[in-house]
Structures are given as structure tokens and as C-alpha cells.
Specification:
Shape: globular
Largest sheet: 6 strands, mixed
Order of helices and strands: EEHEEEHHE
Radius of gyration: 14 Å
Helix content: 10-25%
Amino acid sequence: MENKKVVLTFTVAECGEYHSLGEYHEGIRTLEEAVVIYEKIPPERMNGIPAIGINLHVKGTNKVEDSQADILSGDEIDIGIISLMPEFCGNPQVQEAVKEFIRLFPDKEVIDY
């Protein structure tokens, strides 16, 4: 992955546990755009715990090879998951995105294991 162009985008899921259960958006270019979509999901029809995730795509590869993880889920920002994913760990784009999650959601608990 070092020599190939990595594209970071964001996802928004109405149900973080099962992305296919409810509204799901992918290919979102900025975290700010993802937050707008996330906040527009009507809470009265929530099918689960809403989530915002990060998706990494390596140009020239098939989309099914992408790496995706929900970072914001309910009241938590899970940054520990990043250490379990080699393609996320140490990626400067992911590290910047994590800082932005924490900045935009100061009331959420940061989970780092």
C-alpha cells in the first residue's frame, strides 16, 4: 500500500451493527460532510446505533478490497480499532481524521485499547 495512492473517504450508517439495516452512505469526501448526513438521520426511525466510519481504498484495486471501520458509534469514538488494522495503523490520513473526530465530537468518550 506504501507505493500506491490511498484514498480516504467516510461512511455514515443509520445502524452501525448492520450497515444494510437502514440508511447507509459511502464515498463521503470530508468528515464535515459525513457529520451533516449523520445529523440528518431522523432519530425516530433509527434502526440501531448510528455510526460514522473511515474507508480506505487503494487506487487500482477492486472496491471489495477496501478497508472500512466505524470510528464514531453512538457515544464513543473508538480509536483502538485502528491499532488492530495494519492498513489504518500509522496512516497519516487516518491519524488526521481521528484528530478531527475528537475535535468535532468533544462530548463523545474516546476509547483506546
